[in-house]
Design a protein that fits this description.
363 residues, mainly alpha, 2 domains, 8 strands, globular
């Protein structure tokens, strides 16, 4: 099964690279006017978008590629007015959308207010037009909602079966029960303590399976997979922020005393010049910051490496490089299956460790 999945992944990524090479959505140009740019292709696949691109169809008469994608809701707020429409109205960046006296345009996956139907640029070719507040259901948001529904569909029936006290777990319950017990016995209990771990167990289980499932969905090259959700720094920032809030809100007297009155430190480093309290407060922020960057960097790097290896075929423009490229892509796909689980484990472990340090009693 893993071999089939890896083979399909390579085929899809190769097809997607060919399609993206000629994708006219954001720059209004075709591949006939420029060489293959691996950076543009890779950034196209790892970044967020207002539609869910599936594949491209070739026009037999003109040879141009027509993108086929799932349109997503666009929700914009500007000057107190809320505009809602589907992303298909942009026609993949070829058309502006008029709503009342406002006109919106899509440029490099961002929405701007068009002045007289056009964008204005500065000397660095950056748009200077105003941007509305964007609350759209983007590709990453849609992927997040899909994962949330998937988690509910799996764990609500599991909870009902445990509540009824049925016998030997079967099916998906039998597969996930050892993983749940692993989070409880090897992550929560040792780091938080026998008497306090149950209070934080719902959060730890949720964040573990949320990260793991999203990492796995990101490895599936076809809908509903392929989104780089956990490689989005806004998502990892939110998860790390939750860990920071839970840690500090539940911190006991001993925890805060260690920060503002660090034991074993000379008094002159704590009172006249509050150097140690400042260092400890920096540590309070540095811990969740490390969580955020670690998850974001590892997941994004995996996607970039796989796409870069496939890009070698199009960079060298020879089929003879494809065996080596495909071999390394298959290796990376298998490695990414391990990384998907490993990153969920590391994030949950460190979250439990930080919470445990905040709630432990003074001995």
């Amino acid at each position: 099964m893993k071999r089939v999945f890896a083979f399909l992944s390579v085929l899809f990524f190769a097809f997607a690279l060919i399609a993206s090479e000629e994708h006219p959505a954001d720059n209004h140009t075709t591949n006939q006017e420029k060489e293959f740019d691996p950076t543009e292709v890779i950034m196209h696949h790892i970044s967020d978008a207002h539609d869910w691109h599936l594949f491209d169809l070739t026009n037999k008469e003109t040879g141009e590629l027509k993108p086929v994608s799932i349109p997503l809701p666009v929700i914009l707020l500007h000057d107190g007015n809320l505009d809602i429409f589907m992303s298909s109205e942009f026609h993949h960046g070829h058309s502006n959308v008029k709503k009342g006296d406002k006109e919106y345009t899509l440029y490099h996956k961002k929405i701007y207010l068009a002045e007289h139907g056009e964008l204005q640029f500065d000397e660095h070719q950056h748009p200077t037009n105003a941007m509305p507040l964007d609350f759209s259901i983007t590709k990453n948001v849609a992927s997040l909602l899909i994962c949330a529904v998937l988690l509910l569909l799996i764990f609500i029936p599991m909870a009902k079966m445990y509540k009824k006290g049925k016998g030997i777990p079967r099916g998906i319950q039998g597969f996930l029960e050892p993983i749940v017990l692993f989070v409880v016995e090897d992550i929560a209990k040792p780091n938080i303590g026998e008497h306090k771990y149950k209070r934080f167990l719902p959060y730890l289980l949720t964040v573990f399976f949320f990260i793991w499932f999203n990492n796995m969905l990101g490895l599936i090259p076809i809908f509903p997979g392929g989104a780089n959700l956990t490689g989005n720094i806004a998502v990892t920032f939110t998860l790390a922020f939750f860990t920071m809030v839970i840690t500090n809100v539940n911190g006991n007297r001993n925890y805060w005393s260690h920060i503002f009155n660090t034991p074993g430190v000379p008094w002159w480093l704590k009172y006249p010049i509050p150097l140690m309290p400042f260092v400890e407060l920096v540590g309070v922020l540095a811990k969740p910051f490390a969580l955020m960057i670690r998850l974001f960097a590892n997941i994004t790097a995996g996607h970039i490496i796989v796409l870069s290896l496939v890009s070698l075929i199009f960079i060298f423009k020879t089929v003879w490089i494809s065996p080596a490229a495909i071999f390394f892509v298959l290796f990376m796909d298998v490695l990414e299956l391990l990384v998907a689980l490993l990153q969920a484990y590391i994030f949950t472990l460190l979250s439990a460790l930080f919470i445990g340090l905040a709630v432990q009693e003074h001995h």
